[in-house]
Design goal:
six-stranded mixed β-sheet; 11 helices; 3 domains; Trna Endonuclease, Chain: A, domain 1; 16 strands
Length: about 400
């Protein structure tokens, strides 16, 4: 086990916070009126209706609150200082596995060492500690620096004259200069600083992890301008031999920035929500698992844009195509829900996608087996099936079973 893994094992302790109400996704919970104030309940109802169904106390609920989480997991702070913690129905080690694939963390050795995480909070703590440890390690070696172009008017010559600018302002006695400055105040470091600030402000790390996050932030803060970023800013970046070790750190930053509140909330409240959209995570996981295991003859597109007509635009979850001819072979639509049979809406949606792409094989992907599985032909043109990519057991075996159902062999 790596030293990071050993230290994480010592550090990751479950928080025991009596001010936190715990829910489990899709499982209703009755909460006594005394345990959730009217102000907190109304705030939850108005601000987080998408994440949690809120039924107010009434004779129907025996004068208690009825709260049901809808496919989101994480933490919601409430105005009173209490919070709602939503635990995943997926086993935590499988949630970890999903995140490894979805955020391209699996190939990086910085996650070596088996650390037993039993709750989402411990998983959050683990990622936060590893990010902080990585930033501290990089600051000790020296932050990545590069040259950035500067256009500035000076009283003395530096670099080259900006002749065009001087012609436009002939009466100016100062010199318009163009030069480059070697600096560490670049996006690569700004992303790290912003992510650490979000984690520290979120007040969700336990008392053992938070000091490491704050130390890392204090170490990098003097060298950079604190600038807001979002998860998309961490993707598609260019790396070289001088900053290649930033790649896994940016992937961790993406994890935190994707699932915390928007940047304008910083300073608006005492704590920042941390919420994972499990439906979106499931889609990313299935796509990235396939990307890593598909044979070379099959290509993959994620969130392919489909324009059907004016004002009709759809994003296809996953499209598999012949790598040599670009012919679409499968349309995959992920559905993070447990059902006894596919809904009419789900079938109609995937059929429309397949029709538009001239694809004969439409797949509805569920996280567990559908009791009454469907394998039907629509108009003798499109075959619609529901296939499970299960999250209950071993993810690798589940993936292989999924590929077998599609008639594909792993690379």
């Amino acid at each position: 086990m790596s030293s990071v893994g050993i230290r994480c094992r010592v550090l990751l302790m479950t928080m025991n916070d009596s001010a936190t109400l715990e829910l489990k996704e899709y499982q209703p919970r009755l909460v006594a009126h005394a345990d959730l104030s009217p102000d907190d309940g109304e705030y939850l109802f108005r601000q987080y209706a998408q994440q949690v169904d809120v039924e107010f106390p009434s004779p129907k609920t025996d004068h208690q609150w009825r709260l049901t989480a809808n496919g989101w997991v994480g933490y919601i702070p409430l105005p009173s200082g209490k919070g709602i913690y939503i635990a995943p129905k997926v086993p935590i080690h499988n949630l970890f596995g999903m995140l490894e694939y979805a955020y391209s963390l699996k190939s990086f050795h910085f996650l070596d060492g088996q650390v037993q995480c039993h709750t989402l909070r411990e998983l959050y703590d683990r990622f936060a500690y590893i990010l902080a440890h990585g930033v501290l390690s990089r600051t000790r070696k020296g932050l990545y620096r590069t040259y950035i172009p500067i256009n500035k008017t000076l009283s003395h010559l530096r670099g080259r004259l900006d002749v065009r600018r001087m012609v436009r302002h002939p009466t100016s006695t100062d010199l318009a200069c163009r030069f480059k400055r070697h600096t560490s105040d670049v996006e690569e470091n700004q992303i790290l600083a912003w992510s650490l600030s979000r984690i520290a402000h979120g007040h969700q790390c336990n008392d053992w992890v938070l000091p490491a996050v704050r130390r890392a932030y204090r170490a990098i803060h003097p060298a950079v301008t604190i600038t807001p970023f979002n998860g998309k800013d961490c993707v598609g970046r260019s790396y070289n031999r001088l900053n290649d070790d930033y790649r896994p750190l940016h992937m961790l930053c993406r994890f935190f920035l994707d699932h915390t509140g928007p940047s304008h909330e910083l300073g608006d409240q005492a704590s920042i929500p941390f919420l994972v959209n499990m439906g979106r995570l499931y889609e990313l996981f299935v796509a990235e698992w396939l990307r890593a295991h598909l044979p070379s003859t099959i290509g993959i597109k994620v969130q392919d844009v489909l324009n059907i007509g004016p004002g009709l635009r759809f994003n296809l979850d996953i499209t598999l195509f012949d790598a040599s001819t670009s012919e679409v072979k499968y349309i995959l639509d992920t559905k993070y829900k447990d059902v006894s049979h596919p809904s009419t809406e789900d079938v109609a949606q995937v059929v429309a996608y397949s029709k538009a792409k001239n694809c004969t094989d439409a797949i509805l992907v569920y996280p567990s087996s559908v009791e009454n599985g469907h394998d039907v032909w629509i108009g003798h043109e499109i075959r619609v099936r529901d296939v499970a990519f299960s999250l209950d057991g071993d993810l690798e075996q589940a993936g292989q079973n999924f590929m077998n159902c599609l008639g594909l062999t792993s690379s």
